[in-house]
Amino acid sequence: MATIPITKRGAEILKAELHKLKTVERPWVINAISEARAQGDLSENAEYEAAKDRQGFIEGRIQEVEGKLSAAQIIDPAELDAGGRVVFGATVELEDEDTGDRVKYQIVGEDEADLKLGLVNISSPIARALIGKEEGDTAVVQAPGGEKAYEIVAVHYL
């Protein structure tokens, strides 16, 4: 099985979700199923069916998160020494060469990506254009509206 890169923060978020699923969600749904069973006829018991569906979802998500964590290659950006190059986990400050607008992105794994928080997926077009570049380089990104050029203002390993 191939390893999946994930930042230390992303791994901690997945571990917290797994803990909640196992210690809160799973016991709750087991209790809901037993209460629904106590109501008698299961053939027309909507509460029982809903609880069984929820249990299926929870057990599936537990397996999914455990699989991701077992295949995870946890990378702590603070421990990186990439010599100023953009690598997985790096935080990059960019300046749009057309408008002068500045943005800051951290390159993260698929499960952590959230553009509103400045977290971009390693396989996104912008991350692929940035990987391997250094401060002062220009990265050309194939955006839906055409090519956009960004100057790399700074690279941080936070």
| Individual helix count | 3
* Sheet of most strands: 5 strands, mixed
Distance between termini? 29 Å
Give the overall silhouette.
elongated
Percent of residues in helices comes to 25-40%
- How would you state the average pLDDT, rounded? 93
Put the structure in a nutshell:
The protein is of the alpha/beta class and 158 residues long.
Any key phrases for this structure?
158 residues; alpha/beta; 5-stranded mixed sheet; two-stranded parallel sheet; 7 strands; 39% helix; elongated
Topology overview:
Layout: E1 4-7, H1 8-38, H2 46-70, E2 72-75, E3 91-96, E4 102-108, E5 119-121, H3 125-130, E6 138-143, E7 146-156
Parallel strand pairs: 1-2, 4-5
Antiparallel strand pairs: 3-4, 3-7, 6-7
Helix pairs in contact: 1-2
Domain Transcription elongation factor GreA/GreB C-terminal: 84-157
Organism: Rhodoferax saidenbachensis
Family: Belongs to the GreA/GreB family.
